[in-house]
Amino acid sequence: MANTLSAPVEGSRRELGIAMLRTMIRIRVLEEGIEKHFLAGDIPGFAHLSIGQEAVAAGTCTNLRTGDAIASTHRGHGHTLAKGTSMRAMVAELFARATGVCKGKGGSMHIADFSVGMLGANGVVAGGFGLVAGAALSAVQRKTDQVAVCFFGDGATNRGPFHENLNLCAIWNLPAIFVLENNRYASTTSTAETMKIVDVARRADGYGMASVIVDGFDAFAVYDAVGVAVQRARSGGGPTFVECKTFRARGHYIGDPERYRAKTEVEDVMNASDPIVRMQALLGDALAAAAFEALWNEARAEFADAVAFARSSPPPERTEAFFGAYSGDRDPGDPVHALESRERDRFMPFAPDVGSGSQGSGH
Amino acid sequence: MRTISFTEATLEAMREEMRRDPTVFLMGEDIAKQGGIFGQFKGLPQEFGLERVRDTPISEAALVGAGVGAALTGCRPVVDMHFADFITCAMDELVNQAAKLRYMFGEQCIVPMTLRAPDGITKSAGSQHSQALESWFVHTPGLEVVVPADAEDAKGLLKAAIRSDNPTLYFEHKSLFPQKGPVPEDDDFVVPLGKAKTMRDGRDVAIVTYGITVGRAIEAAKVLEADGIDATVINLRSLWPLDYDAIADAVARTHRVVVAHEAVRVGGVGAEIASFIGEHCFDDLDAPVLRLGAAHVPVPFAPGLQEAMYPKAPMIADAARRLVRREA
């Protein structure tokens, strides 16, 4: 495992560290805020937190350009924010508002932002592998130097699409990077119970794919490993598997009673390895305490602004339920999809007044 | 108009669309070197190269998943499923990803992917290589489903599917590949999605059908003609969007309807059509709507068993006769 704890942090490396620290703090503040607002009933549906895993999102996405693609998981707030989606657009989406990045139709588990190359969180474990293989294939077909990154957990590597898509990307030498967040749990089951190997990166060997294992609490280590992978992919060198050893400091979902692990486990790991504390220590004297505090305050202000934006935004119009499944279905002149108005018309007089969900005022 | 085979019609569609749009590419098992198991891809690698006509591993989930990913990022992939039965290996990619991404991401993306799926009963292919699965996908919002009945449809619907910004399943019956028919030479000949075609206009009974069963219905109509019964045959061409207006018109003109398909009758597309007629055209009916489809069993291997379990021309003609004589 790469150990960067003793690496000198100065010059451009210092700027990089501060940038990644800022991203990690923004993710932490966002997710702690999501947790609070979910429990308060402001956020419908399910939400899954990546607290403890922030270094993977920050270290990976800091290597990427806007035009590069990522596919995320149901635990995707960090990836989305790190790829460049605004906190306002994210929080409004989670609050199910019309101003959300997916117009309030996706929510936490299905958030996407194509304007920054974020091809979506995914409600299906292993759902992102095909999308990333396809985005990487698309870059080859269109002759661009774009790369595509798949974030996934250890649990996803026990599904078929993981194996099919790694093999496909390897044989076609596609510009894909597979970033595993090995957070020790697949839902509520520990990885030790679901596979006989400790290092999942060994699975990449089976497909002839380059792999590397890094300390996933260390944003520099993730940044460096993914940087090598991105360079390899952009220059036609093919895909890479990056296993980040990390930890899920919250339950599988918000509200998970976590009966499957000792209460002390989270404390022990986070006391030793919290990626934010780790980065602060790495930066050491390079980052004054006041500057560190300022990063937290900025993030808290950004989140408060995002919540205010979401609260002041309307829920989607009730009629929105009936549009968007097909390209062309908003165009009454579309000779193909205008036919579907028959389906919509059937519901218009009967649509129940639940469009606003738990957000109070409706139409 | 010149006459070409269904296979040649699909090849022409592929060639024209690949020339027209450099983002169109094709991938599947046994297509580049072998030319497709029905010869439906012969010559394409020579013209377009192995990057645009890709042989793949036997990895249906990856093929459809990568098709979706490519479609999201600026390409128009055509993915060949080898046999329609193998779509089952890529159901998540099709149903949870392709069909839903545009809607649940608030219309940020389009998914212009075409899935070619050779289907249907032929030559004792048996239970796992003979199915007609279209009703599953008509039932899934976000997908388009087309089913060509002849060479003209084969070309026009494939071009429409490739040009569509929505994920489209193209179910091509294996027995249709060698069949010949007239096909326009025009590069821009496209069969519009959601529009049925009246193959034969009669006043006594309407046979509403699609795919290979259109030919069987026309055969039945010829037999009926000898009996003095004048049948309309409606070729639906696309099952979603579905041309409800054409169905309603046929009911209004004939007052008696047989709905027929090779897919299993129970829960089939015919059920949607019959219930639509019941809801919207009740006053136009002189007889109950009759539905014909395969028996609710897997497709058997033994030729005699296979031929016994799905509707062909005599069964369609018999159903039409029963409807007409009911009144007489």
Describe the structure.
The complex is a heterodimer of chains A (363) and B (328). Helix content of chain A is 42%, strand content 9%. By secondary structure, chain A is α/β, with parallel strands linked by helices. Chain A folds into two domains: 12-311, Rossmann fold; 319-359, no CATH class. In chain A, the strands form two sheets. Chain A has a five-stranded parallel sheet with strand order 1-2-3-7-6, sandwiched between helices. In chain A, α1 crosses α3 (77-83) and α2 packs parallel to α3 (77-83). The longest helix of chain A has 28 residues, at 12-39. Chain B is an alpha/beta fold and 328 residues long. Chain B has two domains: 3-182, Rossmann fold, CATH 3.40.50.970; 197-327, Rossmann fold (3-Layer(aba) Sandwich). Chain B is 37% helix and 20% strand. A seven-stranded mixed sheet of chain B has the order 3-2-4-5-7-6-12, with helices on both faces. A five-stranded mixed sheet of chain B has the order 9-11-10-13-14, sandwiched between helices. A two-stranded antiparallel ribbon of chain B has the order 1-8. Classes of the chains: A alpha/beta (363), B alpha/beta (328). The interface between A and B is large, with 54 and 54 residues.
